[in-house]
Amino acid sequence: MQSGGDPKERRKWCPKEDKILIGAWLNTSKDAVVSNDQRAGAFWKRIADYYNASPQLAGTIPREVCSCKKLWGRINADVSKFAGCYDAALREQRSGQNDDDVMKAAIDIFFKTNDNKFSMDHCWRELRHDQKWCSTYGPKECGKEKRKGDVEADGGDEAEGRPIGVKAAKAASKKKKSGKEESLAKIHAIIEIKEKLSKQKILERLLGKKEPLTEMETSLQLKLMAEML
């Protein structure tokens, strides 16, 4: 039982509300009329208004701006991380594996990398085709790459139908371990690239603004410029 605080802000979000918030963010961020002119405060007020105006939420208590912003921060962070895990799973995809197999592998990679279970798959499915989160590695390319390496990955002895020896088994085990480490390194590299591209877009948007920047925007611009140099 909860006590103290604002009950409107302490209640949990359900998957339906998550999806509505994502829709509000996507529509507001892509609004060609105001996207380049809206301040951060106005931007999030528009998102909260869009969210609360949804017919699917009729009869529910409206969400505050800070609550929408806080949840979006969690969604953005986890989905960005999972996008990197999904790319890594695509790279490891074997011939015969379907989309469900790739999804399970990506969830497993996320758990091993972050020490917690990925619980926002419904959010990822809403955002996966957006430019910011879309996969940088296509499944068709993955299939071709894996087929070329199938014989090497499975071992020459097994490919020819002969039983694998003890030494070969140990070597294969070591190879699998190094493969997992390499996959984790790739995940971190992909996440770093996505974060860098995101910062670059923000900097370009700030540099392209015609009117004077606010103190917060100026500070952010200087910080991003320093990181890019």
TrEMBL record:
It comes from the Eukaryota. It comes from Brassica oleracea var. oleracea. PANTHER family: GLYCINE-RICH PROTEIN-RELATED, PTHR45023. This is Myb-like domain-containing protein.
